[in-house]
Design brief:
single chain, alpha/beta, six-stranded parallel β-sheet, 11% strand, globular
């Protein structure tokens, strides 16, 4: 999958100029954020649950190898098969190999950021297997040949009119005007694919080491069809999704839906433990779990960034981020957008391929305030900024300016001289106390005015006032 994170600036400028996108993002993120706030306002122990969830994640990651071994043993004890993938290529090879061995021609998929991460759809299509996204948002994105724009709402950037145009073009059907009509049309087409599919592919919100159970939450019911109608069910999960036991799962389910959509509980919570057993009527005949590393081991071994693996992919940080709310998910140039994407993408694709992302933040702290597992995202963004700069991600002149600034700030006399020079240089550009255009400040003054230096310093004014 192509990574275009280094073009964040160009993508963001394009997004800012798209009035329809701006309206869609503003309405959707505001609605989700308000719903989250209301949901936690009704949960008296919400803060305590978040603290406990963070501690469970911390303890689990501290012994991740033990929990993963226990998960694998539990899955295999219940008739499932476990596959370990060190990177995206190996994960694609495993899933495509399973499809080929079973002569699969159609694979229905539920929403999964992990399969987006490994570029699974393209690999299946190249192998002659038709991948069909069955989550409505993902289905829309697949038709539009785009990436998801949000972790939980992949088509958040689309208006109903745009979706109507898309369905009319791709389905070659009469134009539908209402959301109900569009949903009904998609349902009819997807129902046929469910019945035709040879393989169902899902992600996993959580994997319980104690029982080998996958927990998948959704609001449409498509996951249940993906995991019960096809003969073979393949789940692809990042290795950080494992949790110790069902008691932990109960806690995480209480905060995930509230953080993601403002619901007390998602409409469907599917608990899948292995393939269909003897005497059972529902479920796939085969169950395969692919556990993906793809750079997570390196993050786990990094004491400064390990905290980013606590993420439960709720999307709450996106909804409050002032940068995401204007730039949109596609500006981030890869799978994971928003503050969490700006943290994990450089680690997963390399700092050289994601230089701008850690700087795509105001560091306002809103993302940290809403995170259900209390990830200190501003701190992690600062860590990643430092690493981008150390990897040569800064303009050479910028380094010189920072060194010069440091020398000035360490000397009182140099500071006074620099202050006088700054005031003198600003005179030709200042109008009514503001600088609207000036060399080196054009990225700032293109969208806002820069305050001109005061005519006298604080010390000068103090001396004058005190006589």
């Amino acid at each position: 999958m192509e990574v275009t994170a280094n073009r964040f600036g160009a993508h963001a400028r394009e997004a800012l100029g798209n009035s329809e996108l701006q309206r869609a993002l503003a309405a959707a993120t505001r609605r989700l954020d308000v719903a989250r706030s209301d949901a936690f306002a009704d949960l008296a122990e919400g803060d305590a649950l978040r603290t406990r969830a963070r501690e469970i994640k911390r303890q689990t990651l501290a012994e991740l190898d033990r929990h993963l071994d226990r998960l694998a043993a539990s899955v295999e004890a219940r008739g499932g098969a476990v596959h370990w993938a060190s990177d995206a290529a190996e994960a694609r090879e495993i899933v495509v190999g399973l499809a080929r061995a079973r002569g699969a021609r159609v694979a229905v998929k539920s929403k999964s950021m992990t399969t987006e991460e490994i570029g699974l759809n393209d690999a299946l299509a190249a192998a002659g297997v038709e991948p069909v996204e069955t989550d409505l948002g993902e289905y829309i994105i697949q038709l539009a040949e785009e990436r998801p724009s949000h972790i939980i709402a992949p088509a958040i950037h689309k208006t109903a009119a745009q979706i109507s145009d898309l369905f009319e073009e791709k389905h070659r059907t009469p134009r539908r005007e209402t959301r109900e009509e569009l949903t009904s049309e998609a349902r009819a087409l997807l129902r046929a694919k469910f019945l035709e599919a040879d393989m169902g592919i899902t992600g996993a919100n959580f994997a319980v080491a104690e029982t080998g159970t996958l927990a998948i939450v959704e609001n449409e019911g498509n996951v249940r069809l993906c995991t019960s109608l096809p003969r073979c069910h393949v789940a692809v999960m990042g290795m950080e999704k494992v949790i110790p036991d069902l008691e932990s799962l109960a806690l995480f389910l209480r905060i995930l839906a509230r953080s993601a959509t403002g619901q007390k509980m998602s409409s469907y919570v599917s608990l899948i433990t292995g393939p269909r057993g003897e005497g059972q009527e529902d479920g796939a005949e085969e169950f395969h779990l692919v556990i993906l590393d793809n750079g997570r081991s390196a993050i786990l071994a990094d004491p400064e960034l390990r905290e980013s693996l606590y993420c439960i992919r709720c999307g709450a940080c996106l909804n409050v981020c002032p940068v995401y709310r204007h730039a949109g998910g596609h500006s981030y140039g890869w799978v994971y957008p928003g503050p969490i994407g700006a943290v994990v993408t450089p680690s997963l694709v390399g700092h050289a391929n994601a230089k701008p992302l850690p700087f795509a933040s105001t560091l306002c702290g809103a993302c940290r305030d809403v995170c259900p597992v209390r990830i200190d995202l501003p701190k992690l963004l600062v860590v990643q900024r430092e690493r981008v700069l150390r990897a040569g991600g800064s303009w050479q002149g910028e380094r010189g300016l920072v060194r010069a600034f440091g020398r000035i700030m360490r000397s009182q006399s140099r500071y006074r001289i620099a202050s006088r020079v700054a005031r003198w240089l600003a005179v030709p550009f200042a109008r009514a106390g503001r600088i609207r255009r000036a060399p080196l400040l054009s990225p700032w003054t293109a969208t806002r005015d820069f305050p001109a230096p005061a005519r006298e310093t604080f010390r000068q004014r103090w001396r004058r006032v005190r006589g």
